[in-house]
């Protein structure tokens, strides 16, 4: 019909064709069309065309959601129930766009009785009509079921091949040509009025079918008719034919020369549609679906260029997986190209141009979903081609899944690891065939097993419901199921003070271990007391007690191994410096000696002990072992300084008479622990005890006290306790080598066994027998001693004796008869200045009766009471 009208004088710019639900392979005049993807009739035609090798109908360019019962014959093909009900807005928009582009033509019109004559029913026309009757049974109600349709189609093909000869070679092109002669085919009625509307003096054939008379009715454009873009209600076929509108009278036009109608096959248009989508009814947002606009008129060249083609992408119906797209095609050489694309009501225009070969290309960023495309070629005279329209569907792959656990490069001590994160759809991995589906909140989790030792790199993918797979999220994990080895060393045990077990001399222990672990826990008596990453530490333990120690090593994967437990017995300061004869002996000042004491009940191995001075002038190692409670004598250079005692260690050293700070240290390999020491030189401006003038040694006053304190030392008290200790010249040694230190007795005093120290003034002492001792170091002349029962001036002498300087030992009892608890007793010590008997009698009389006068005051009195204090 389009060709007929054009050949009979209707200008092209005054006509536009818009097809709905068409099985045609093109739209006459390059017009628009609308075909739903779920139109079963069009799908059946498409299948038949493919089977016969004929050209297929235009691709569907919309998906209209379900509007009718699915069991209805040729579901999806109803104009009123499907197209008008589901896409009226699109139809109105497309027609409105076509109206806008029409121009007022001045062509001649052949009219008979006010109407165009219908085209003659030639063989070609009838053949096309026969195909149409077969493929669209809804239009003519020839068949009512798919089975009948299949039979009719097969019969029609056989008939056509036999009856029309070479014409049948075009197959379904006849169907499409036939339908292209109608501007719109209404699928649910056999006849529809031709609607004529004006827009700028132009007419649009909106709906076309045969009238009862077989003629096409066109009203003369007389006024402007606005086309409203609105939702159309479903329409149905009128029960009676509509009478044709009369044509207004006008001056008769010259009769044109007779022409013979010629069958002209329309040139196929490239106005194909895009693949259907359920997200939108309109795959060309921003554009109508109708024919293109006319060319601009420029004096000298009024011919519009051919519509440009789109050759890239090659398959316009294919769904794209990227928004960055290169689009290209062909147009008139060196024509300007006006390219528009739009989505969601937003339109972007890009200008480019074709090269001398007519090739054009550009890069564009589309949006996800349906993107309308329109391309217009503009020649050098400004003439615009009809628009080439299509739609491109972009469906991006989903985002790569997020793996929130574990962290990348995590280490595990197990070959089974649980992974989790967020995503959409189905999560898969290249490690195994295991998959996981995301929950309603987008979370996923999967457990993977059989990881090998070492590092494994694996990727995770997100696949959506349409099978699109994301880029990979890659991470690595490290599996280590081998526990680290660990060997614990307690330095004090390597250098134990005992040969039988680990004996340490200080409550601070030095621990070290060898291990491939990364973190460690120190365990004391079964309890973790420290966590650290280093391989050494110190540990505080209890004095005079055993402590069990172990170290647990952890590697980066969490594997753990525990060292062998070690039991350490600690005795704080087990060996102490007990005496220093820094002044030498009466025989020689170089016969210096010193002594150490074992404070414990244990046998001590002295081989790891040394004595050093703070200034480094003295340094030597001890040797041998030392039993519990025993003393070891250390002599300088040889074993002659103390002739009466054997030396345990002989060493080369020299002590400064002005003072030394000596230290007893426990060697621990590269470290040492100081067990004991003498005071710093500055503490006492020299040695803190000992007398050079009297050759009295410096002795330890308290082994439990800190040896660095002045109060921990005193000088030998000058009493010859061990009267057998002699120097190299057999002189008395005022010291206590290898024997208990002196008791620091006073210059005078008295006591009897079992007491070991002098009586205190007026103290109670329950003794009246045994050996008794007189002390009189401070009295430097021959002495007399007397024991009295009573008080001074009222007493009775019990016994008396003369003694020499030093200490007096009575080997007989000083028994006093008749004593009762609380009786007073006292001892008199006095020098005999004249050594005469009168002097002795005078002292005795005075202390018994108090009647005489003492000859001098060089005497001492010690008073006490017998028995026990009340």
TrEMBL record:
Q: What is this protein called?
A: LTD domain-containing protein
Q: Where is the composition biased (Gly residues)?
A: 286-295
UniProt-listed InterPro entries: Ig-like_fold (IPR013783)
Q: Mind giving the lineage of the organism this protein is from?
A: Bacteria, Candidatus Kaiseribacteriota
Top-rank lineage group of the source organism: Bacteria
Q: Which organism is it from?
A: Candidatus Kaiserbacteria bacterium CG10_big_fil_rev_8_21_14_0_10_49_17
Matching entries from Gene3D superfamilies are given as: Immunoglobulins (2.60.40.10)
**Could you tell me which residues belong to the region Disordered?**
229-309
């Amino acid at each position: 019909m389009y060709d007929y009208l054009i050949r009979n004088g209707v200008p092209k710019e005054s006509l536009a064709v818009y097809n709905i639900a068409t099985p045609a392979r093109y739209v006459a005049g390059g017009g628009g069309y609308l075909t739903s993807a779920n139109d079963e009739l069009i799908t059946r035609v498409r299948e038949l065309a493919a089977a016969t090798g004929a050209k297929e109908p235009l691709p569907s360019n919309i998906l209209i959601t379900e509007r009718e019962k699915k069991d209805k014959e040729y579901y999806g093909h109803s104009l009123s129930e499907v197209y008008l009900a589901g896409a009226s807005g699109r139809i109105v928009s497309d027609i409105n766009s076509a109206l806008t582009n029409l121009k007022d033509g001045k062509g001649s019109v052949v009219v008979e009785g006010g109407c165009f004559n219908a085209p003659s029913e030639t063989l070609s026309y009838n053949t096309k009509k026969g195909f149409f009757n077969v493929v669209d049974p809804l239009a003519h109600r020839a068949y009512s079921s798919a089975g009948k349709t299949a039979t009719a189609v097969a019969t029609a093909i056989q008939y056509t091949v036999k009856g029309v000869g070479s014409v049948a070679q075009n197959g379904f092109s006849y169907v499409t040509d036939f339908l292209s002669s109608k501007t719109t085919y209404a699928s649910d009625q056999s006849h529809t009025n031709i609607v004529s509307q004006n827009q700028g003096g132009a007419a649009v054939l909106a709906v076309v079918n045969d009238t009862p008379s077989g003629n096409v009715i066109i009203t003369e454009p007389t006024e402007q008719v606005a086309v409203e873009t609105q939702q159309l209600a479903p329409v149905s076929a009128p029960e009676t034919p509509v009478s044709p509108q009369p044509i207004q009278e006008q001056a008769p036009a010259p009769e044109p020369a007779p022409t013979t109608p010629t069958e002209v096959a329309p040139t196929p248009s490239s106005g194909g549609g895009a693949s259907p989508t359920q997200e939108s009814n309109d795959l060309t947002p921003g554009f109508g679906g109708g024919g293109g606009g006319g060319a601009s008129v420029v004096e000298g060249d009024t011919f519009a260029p051919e519509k440009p083609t789109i050759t890239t992408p090659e398959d316009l119906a294919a769904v794209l997986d990227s928004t960055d797209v290169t689009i290209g095609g062909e147009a008139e050489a060196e024509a300007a190209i006006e390219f528009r694309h739009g989505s969601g009501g937003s339109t972007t225009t890009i200008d480019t141009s074709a090269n001398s070969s007519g090739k054009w290309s550009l890069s564009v960023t589309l949006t996800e979903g349906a993107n309308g495309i329109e391309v217009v070629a503009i020649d050098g005279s400004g003439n615009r081609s009809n628009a080439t329209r299509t739609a491109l569907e972009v469906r991006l792959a989903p985002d790569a899944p997020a793996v929130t656990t574990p962290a990348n490069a995590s280490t595990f001590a197990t070959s089974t690891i649980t992974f989790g994160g967020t995503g959409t759809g189905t999560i898969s991995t290249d490690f195994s065939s295991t998959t996981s589906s995301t929950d309603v909140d987008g979370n996923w989790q999967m457990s993977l097993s059989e990881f090998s030792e070492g590092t494994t790199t694996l990727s995770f993918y997100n696949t959506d419901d349409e099978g699109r797979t994301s880029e990979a999220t890659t991470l690595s994990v490290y599996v280590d199921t081998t526990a680290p080895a660990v060997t614990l060393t307690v330095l004090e045990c390597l250098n134990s003070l005992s040969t039988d077990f680990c004996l340490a001399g200080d409550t601070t222990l030095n621990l070290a271990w060898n291990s491939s672990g990364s973190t460690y826990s120190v365990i004391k008596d079964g309890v973790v007391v420290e966590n650290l990453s280093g391989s050494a530490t110190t540990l505080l333990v209890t004095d005079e007690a055993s402590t069990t120690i172990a170290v647990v090593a952890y590697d980066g994967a969490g594997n753990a191994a525990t060292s062998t437990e070690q039991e350490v017995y600690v005795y704080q300061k087990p060996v102490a410096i007990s005496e220093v004869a820094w002044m030498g002996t009466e025989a020689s000042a170089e016969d210096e000696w010193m002594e150490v004491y074992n404070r414990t009940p244990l046998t001590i191995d002295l081989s790891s002990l040394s004595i050093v001075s703070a200034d480094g002038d003295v340094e030597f190692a001890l040797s041998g072992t030392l039993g519990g409670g025993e003393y070891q004598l250390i002599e300088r250079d040889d074993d002659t300084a103390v002739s009466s005692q054997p030396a345990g260690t002989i060493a080369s050293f020299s002590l400064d008479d002005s003072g030394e700070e000596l230290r007893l240290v426990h060697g621990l390999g590269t470290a040492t622990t100081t067990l004991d020491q003498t005071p710093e030189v500055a503490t006492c401006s020299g040695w803190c005890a000992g007398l050079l003038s009297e050759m009295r040694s410096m002795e330890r006053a308290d082994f439990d006290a800190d040896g660095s304190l002045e109060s921990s030392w005193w000088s030998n008290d000058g009493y010859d306790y061990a009267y057998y200790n002699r120097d190299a010249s057999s002189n008395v040694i005022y010291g206590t080598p290898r024997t208990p230190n002196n008791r620091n007795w006073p210059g005078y005093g008295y006591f009897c066994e079992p007491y070991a120290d002098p009586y205190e003034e007026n103290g109670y002492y329950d003794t009246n027998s045994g050996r008794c001792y007189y002390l009189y170091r401070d009295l430097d002349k021959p002495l007399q001693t007397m024991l009295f029962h009573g008080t001074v001036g009222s007493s009775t002498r019990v016994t008396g004796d003369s003694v020499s300087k030093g200490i007096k030992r009575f080997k007989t009892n000083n028994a006093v008869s008749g004593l009762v608890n609380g009786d007073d007793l006292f001892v008199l010590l006095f020098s005999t200045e004249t050594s005469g008997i009168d002097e002795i009698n005078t002292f005795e009389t005075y202390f018994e009766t108090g009647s005489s006068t003492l000859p001098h005051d060089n005497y001492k009195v010690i008073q006490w009471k017998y028995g026990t204090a009340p």
